[in-house]
Amino acid sequence: MIVTRNLTKYYGSLCAVSDLNLDIKGEIFGLLGPNGSGKTTTVLMLTTLLRPTSGDAYICGYHTTRSAAKVRSVISYVPQDMAVDIRLTGRENVQLFARLYGLARSKDRVDELLGLMGLSGRADDLVSTYSGGMRRRLELAQALVHEPSVLFLDEPTIGLDVAARRKIWGHIISLRKKGMTVFVTTHYMEEADHACNRVAIIDRGSVAAIGTPGSLKGELGKEIIVVRAEGDFDSFSTENATKIGCAGDEIVFSSDMGSDIVPILTKDLHAAGLTVRSVSVREPTLDDVFLQLVGQGDDRGPFDDRKFRMMLRRRG
Amino acid sequence: MRGVLEYLWRDMLRWTRGKVAVISSLVMPATWLIFVGLALPTSFTTNYLDFITPGILVLTMLTASFQAGSSLIFDKILGFLNKFLALPTPRESILLGKIFFSTARGLLQATVILVLAVLLGAASWSAQVVILTYVLLGVFGILIASFATTIALHLGDHDSYAAVNAMISMPLFFTSSALMPYSVMPRWLATLASINPVSFAIDAIRAVQVNVIMWDRILPLTGMTLLVLAVSIIVFRRTSL
Predict the structure, then answer these.
(1) d(CA A118, nearest CA chain B) in Å
(2) CA-to-CA distance for B176 and B121, rounded, in angstroms?
(3) ipTM of the complex, rounded to two decimals
(4) A80, A249, B171 from B161: Cα distances, Å
(5) Are A171 and A137 in contact (CB under 8 A)?
(6) Partner residue facing A83 (CB), from B2, B6, B78
């Protein structure tokens, strides 16, 4: 459904996406990464909104630049901006898309989708009275009018409360069960872990890891040990556990030894002159995978303001 | 074409539901009509209101059409443009919908202004004059809206666009034949006014009122409109992919 081959995008000399190779079919695929890692750029290229610098992308076999119109007829794209017309009713918003897609019997389809998204009762209210979650569901209804094969969602749950997020993911999962391929970008690791069949972690434009959430977590080890400590822990290392990274005053390790690791690690830390405040053992999460691959992200060298702004402007 | 109408309809619905915007768009031309049209002492005509009405109709179109640019920028900033560009509907219909909506909105506003002018004492127009005037106003509206969207696409952010709009629209109006005939203008102003597209529309409308079709005004105006519309479409294609 989605195939990319060495997909690359440069903004001037800044490489936003580098040699991306993906094969995605019949699944919920999550693209995870820190801000500015190339997630949105990737989505824009796949949705024919941005021309790649080099490389190719195919959606349902159609090339994204050579057969862009064909691509647009089989996909839907919901950007993160929450762009619904607040002075129109929910029904009018969906009707607009149904008509733009040229659906002949659009009325039934619009009613059906509003019902599916749980908006029937409020369909004739102005969208300005809708909550964030309702607006996002309305966007999903708009995106589904023509029964796309591939759905692109850019940060679908950003800014929503917990209940609204859960609802959105529920809808996304049921779409996948109906056979739709869903490509989603998100910051929320826990949500990706729960909903995505596969995820790719992308950092500085390159895929750092790809696989099912389970396999990525499995590669880290059986346990995660989080140590809160004081002292110079940047240079600390031990043979008894793998140091994944540091976050704030926490050092994160992985290990396969079970809880036996706790006294051993504590001893090593003391020997290195660190003051240990607390030690806890838990199962690995995607956050740990992310921490290991991407780090905290605040030690990235100088922030190039001009390039960053230029990238934002071109991207917009 | 279907897409153009859908986008036009979307903008029309949004506009008519913002009641403040509907009224405020009429205040400026009505103010001109009342406070300048009725009050300015003039020596070249006995009914200045009759003279200034075509100018104010064109001013109404000028203001309405210039908003096509900011409307396009807002669609871009708020994420609508990306959603629309990802649809299989021909992309140009987004731009054309915007241009035709601004022109249609301008014509609706011009109708109110025309009625107001007659109520204030301007001579009423025959159906033929009204129809021909609308055609000319429509062509002029498309010209300005195409120009405005080109500028907007080129600039990309709203603050710069508003600045350019303020810089262009008023000088365009004041250096036209809207407020006085060429015969009473200083020489330099008459020269400027005679090459100003705003005057082309105004002069053609004044001629229509006395049953003259002024081809030397209408043809350049139409030619310019087609040219700028084509440029706008090219710039739109280039900037949106």
Answers:
(1) 22
(2) 24
(3) 0.88
(4) 25, 48, 16
(5) yes
(6) B78
Q: Which residue has the higher pLDDT, B108 or A313?
A: B108
**What CA–CA distance (Å, rounded) separates A237 from A54?**
41
C-alpha to C-alpha distance for A269 and A263, rounded to whole angstroms: 10
Query: Which SS3 state, helix, strand or coil, does residue B208 take?
Result: helix
Instruction: Please tell me the pTM assigned to this model.
Output: 0.87
**Residue from B82, B159, B239 to probe the interface with A (highest A Cβ count within 10 Å):** B82
The verdict on a CB contact (< 8 Å) between B86 and A68 is no
Strands, E, within chain A: which ranges? Answer: 2-11, 14-24, 28-32, 54-59, 62-63, 75-78, 150-154, 181-186, 198-203, 206-211, 223-230, 242-247, 250-255, 275-282
* pLDDT at A111 > cutoff 90: yes
Q: Burial, A179: exposed, middle or buried (Cβ in 10 Å; 0-12, 13-18, 19+)? A: exposed
Residue B59: pLDDT band with limits 50, 70, 90:
very high
Name every chain A residue with its beta carbon within 8 A of the beta carbon of B17: 87-88, 126
Give residue A305's pLDDT. Answer: 56
pLDDT one-digit tens code per residue, A142-199: 999 999 999 999 999 988 999 999 999 999 999 999 999 999 999 889 999 999 999 9
Task: For A102-121, give the DSSP string.
Answer: T-TTHHHHHHHHHHHTT-GG
Cα dihedral A194, A197, A203, A204 sign = negative
pLDDT of B205 over the 70 cut: yes
Chain B residue closest in CA terms to A85: B14
Q: What's the rounded Cα separation, in Å, for the pair B60 and B109?
A: 7
Decide if A49 and B85 are in contact by the 8 Å CB cutoff: yes
Least trusted range by pLDDT, from A162-166, A213-217, A237-241, B170-174: A237-241
- Phi and psi for B209 in degrees, rounded to 5? -65, -30
Query: pLDDT by residue (tens digit) across A183-206?
Result: 999 988 999 999 999 999 999 889
Task: Classify the phi-psi angles of A283: left when phi > 0, otherwise alpha if psi is within -120 to 50, otherwise beta.
Answer: beta
pLDDT beyond 90 at B54: yes
Cβ separation B10–A101 shorter than 8 A: no
Q: Which chain A residues are Cβ-neighbours of B97 within 8 angstroms?
A: none
Which of B2, B9, B73, B83 has the most A C-beta neighbours within 10 Å, making it the best mutation to test the interface with A?
Answer: B83
Strand order of the sheet with strand A75-78?
Answer: A75-78, A150-154, A181-186, A28-32, A198-203, A206-211
